[in-house]
Amino acid sequence: MYFLDLPTLAAHPMLGTVFSLTNTLNGVIGFCWSWHLIRSNSHLTAHTLWVTSYVAMFTILGLGYCRFLYAGDASDWARGVKFPLTAWFGGEVFITLCVMGIPMLPGLWGPMLYWAGGCTTQEKRELTRHVTFATLRAIAIAAAGYLVFVWFIASDAQRAYLGSGGESLVGPFGYYAPVIGLLVANSVFMVVALWPLFVLSTDDSDKTRSSSGSALAAAAADHHNQSTLKTE
C-alpha cells in the first residue's frame, strides 16, 4: 500500500479491499494452522508459527521505516513534503496505533501470562529457549535477505533510492538504514510481545496442573521424545 497513490486507489478501489482481506485471511489461516499443530502435539512448532509471523510484520515496518514514521499523508509523500521525526507523534499513524494497538495488548499478554501459568521450570526453560531461537533465526534470515538484495541484485538506482528516504532518518547509514530499521523494529517486538514468556509463574510440585500446564508438559515431552528418537 505504501507504493500506491490516491488516484490509483480511487481508480481501483478493490486494491484497498484486497489489502484488508489479506489481513483477515492470513489470521484465519494462521489460526487453523496453529490449531492443527497443537492437535498434532507439535506445540513448539506452533510457537514458531506466531513468532515468525510477528517478525515478518515488524520486518516490513522496519524496512519501510521512513514511510511508517512519516507524519504526512500519501499526497504529502508524493510531493516530497518533509516533516521532522517529532511530528510523527502527533500524526495519524501514531494516534491510530494508540487507539487500536494499546487495547489489543491485554489480549496478547493475558493468555501468555495466565493460560501457561503453573508450568514447571523445565517447561518454561524449554519454551523460552525455543521461542528466543525461533525469533532470532527469523530476524537473521530477513536481514540476510535484504543484504543479499542490496549487494548482489539491486541496481545502483535502487540502492540510491533505498538510501534516500528522509535525510534525518537515514543519517550516515545509506542503503544500510533499512536493515537497521529492521533490527530496531524487531527489538521492539521482542520487548513488547515476548516478555510474558520470561516471567511465567512456575510450579514444580506434583499437584495436578491446569490444562494449559498440561499442554506445555505435552510440548516438552514431545520435544524430548523427538530428541530421543534422533539420538537412537
CA-based gyration radius: 21 Å
Measured distance between first and last alpha carbons: 51 Å
Class by SSE composition:
mainly alpha
In round numbers, the mean pLDDT is: 80
Number of domains: 2
Structure summary, number of beta strands: 0
Q: Work out the strand percent.
A: under 5%
Structural summary, described in words:
With 232 residues, the protein is mainly α. The protein has 2 domains: 1-41; 44-215, no CATH class. Helix content is 73%, strand content 0%. It contains 12 helices and no strands.
List keywords for this structure.
232 residues, mainly alpha, 2 domains, 12 helices, 73% helix, disordered C terminus
Short description:
The protein is built from twelve helices and no strands. With 232 residues, the protein is mostly helical.
Task: Please describe the topology of this protein.
Elements: H1 6-11, H2 14-39, H3 43-63, H4 65-68, H5 74-79, H6 92-101, H7 105-114, H8 121-153, H9 156-162, H10 167-170, H11 177-198, H12 211-231
